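User: My collaborator and I are trying to settle a disagreement about how two of our proteins should look. Neither of us wants to argue from intuition anymore, so we agreed to look at predicted structures for both before our next call. Could you fold the first one, then the second, and keep them clearly separated?

Assistant: That sounds like a sensible way to settle it. I'll keep them separate. The first protein:
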Amino acid sequence: MNRHAAIAMIMLAGCAVGPDYRRPAATPTVPPAYAGWKIAEPQADRPKGNWWEMFGDPELNQLEAAAATANQQLKVAVAVFEQARASADITRAGLFPNLSLAPSATRQLISRNMPVNGANQGLSYNTFTMPLTAGYEVDLWGRVRRSVESARTQVQASADDLESVKLALQAEVATDFFTIRALDAEIVLLRSSVAVFRKSLELTRNRRQGGVASDLDVAQAETILKTTEAQLPATQLQRAHFEHALALMTGQPASVFALPEQPLRAVAPVIPPGLPAELLERRPDLAAAERRMAAANAQVGIAKAAFFPTLKFNGLAGLQSMDAGVLFNWPSRMWAAGPSLTLPVFEGGQLSATLRQMRSTYDQTVAYYRQTVLAAFADVEDNLAAQTLLAAEHAQETAALEAARKQLDIATNRYRAGLVTYLEVATAQNLALQQERTVISLHGTRLATSVALVKSLGGGWQHQ
């Protein structure tokens, strides 16, 4: 009979109440362009590669390396991940028996007024104890195993959160770097334009002295010069803001961080076809959301297990004596062992409410996961569309710049021939300058959009 009971106990120990996790569908329908997309799985340890190296800028590479080692937000995310790992190890300890040794020495006086029979009243004596206690919860209904399952999936979600922070940091460094380089190009343009407009003003003043130009021409030339000079500090201020942001991301004081002005050399990379179907599943935010669904599902099992009895085995063995000299003798031994069973009888509906709460939490994580998937589709589509449309816009704006330069040449020649006033030249100069700045800004925007596409795909594509 004892053997049969032991076999039944072993069989029960393998039971785990609650729903086994099955990954729900990401969306009711998958867009045709994403037909090959697979449901996200934890891939926090999958190398993403140094995707920023595709831009071929050594200075950007150095900034990315500095951010990876010194960024404080990243250090926070690493600490959170380590905290999740430690929490999982704590939960996992519940699978094993716990042992504790608690030696003690006590000097005790028995009250003379103590209502006990015997001659020990009013006497004092020593008690030396060296107990070894043991306890073990028999995981009949899978409460501990579901807890371990939930903790492990939370660790995986935390690892994916860490990857999200890394990816966001890398993308922000690259975006700010390209923005600074585009502003550098604008600053160079403004400085050269100021020099040209200053010469034009000087020429116009000379023509006024010669009676060829009017005071209005001089005023117009001076206006466009001063307007352009005013744009220079405003652009330099924008650059300073992004430079300080880079200092923060690379863990350096803004007062000592300096990024020398350099021309914008990088070009937008060519985007190969078929990226969403192959790479979207790597997004760490999708993997984290999926892992949190699994953790919430395990919590439902924990809540269900609370309805069933809890069986624990407790034991005590050790030595006890009133004389330290004989504490380790065989007659000083003591022991006690036995099971304990805890069964909820009445708890005012707390267990049912907890189960409803955990089910609602699971439903919440499913909805959040599906929303994250839909947002990922939209994010990728936005950046893919931007790649195509910005390239077309850049081509058109470049053509418009060539036309504006021709217009400026014609207006300048006509003014020198005395055919038009300086207003026509000023208008052409202003148009050409603004068009030049637009082309430079679009170049920087295309690079930033390429970075955004990399981020939306969960990393680069050149290491696949």
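The second protein, kept apart from the first:
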Amino acid sequence: MTPRPKVAIFILNYNSSDFKSTVYKSIESALGINYPSLDVVVIDNASSDGSFEAIRDRFGKDVALIRLDRNYGYSGGNELGFERYDGERGSPDYAVFMNNDFTVTNRDFVKDLVGFLEHNEDVVLAQGFNLAGDGIHVDSAGYFVDCNLSVVGRYSGQKLVDCPQKSSYVTYASGSCFISKVKVIREVRGYFFEPRLFACWDESDLAFNMWSYGLKSIFIPTTVGIHHALKSFGSFPVLTEYLLIRNRYALRRHYLNGMIKVLSAPTFLTLSLPYRPLQGLKGRIITRAFVDAYLQHVCSSSIVGVYNPLIIVPRSLSYTTCSSFIPKKLRRKMLNRISNLTVSKDDLRASSRPFAVSF
């Protein structure tokens, strides 16, 4: 019998004492996954609240523990943790990156996703249904990015029972829990996450880079688990706001080209208006983030391929050219239409430009 591909699940921890019961459930659920060749790896970003010691005492014999010397954020923590694991235990065939506030409810999800990826060479990133805390509504089923760099969650907030059970290509998979092909990504890109991003848009950077080489991200209609979305990183709102804006526009500069960059110009121009510094703290954050996005080299230094990422381009030019100014009701209606899209292989083939989908 051919041995199953080796899979490692990486769970990043940082100062989680305030929600330690959720973290315990997350690790326990990963250990309960029904897959014969599986390692569970806990990476600690130099926690100072005793949460690392608590995890070590409770799970030390069952998981691989990696302790880093400082807080490297989501990007650096996962990347450095993977490199340490790779050096000590050898490279897995697949890596699952899972938040410490995510609980697996489908013990077979690894088998489901690995089975799909093994038969689809051009797909390197995948996720299933990640549910909200109530276990009824969808937290994420992959994400689309539109031509104005708005992020739209597929079926986010909708009841799982109302969602079609169809696969769909997506711009990127949710960082709360996704699976990746290790060998292909490391050969093409050299690493998973760019540490300089620190957090926010880091999984997008990975997916954008892979799409530029024609290597796709996909949603598979299998339920994976529950994302409790406790977000310990949310205790740093100023930093979060800064990183969201800086990294968003760094990605625009790095990956979008040709007509796609032209279509994203309205939002770009809106954020760059000169009165921003006069709008208080938020205005100063936006201005600083915007400037740094174009002065700092925070995106992948690897060579980018010839294709655009999967960018959703509506047919309506009024939406494309004036999206920052159209009424909220109309914009919400357009985003809802994007949220309900299913992008097939035929849609990609019929696209007027590489991996841009019009509707």
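Some points you might bring to the call about the second protein. The chain has a mean pLDDT of 90. The first helix runs from residue 20 to 31.
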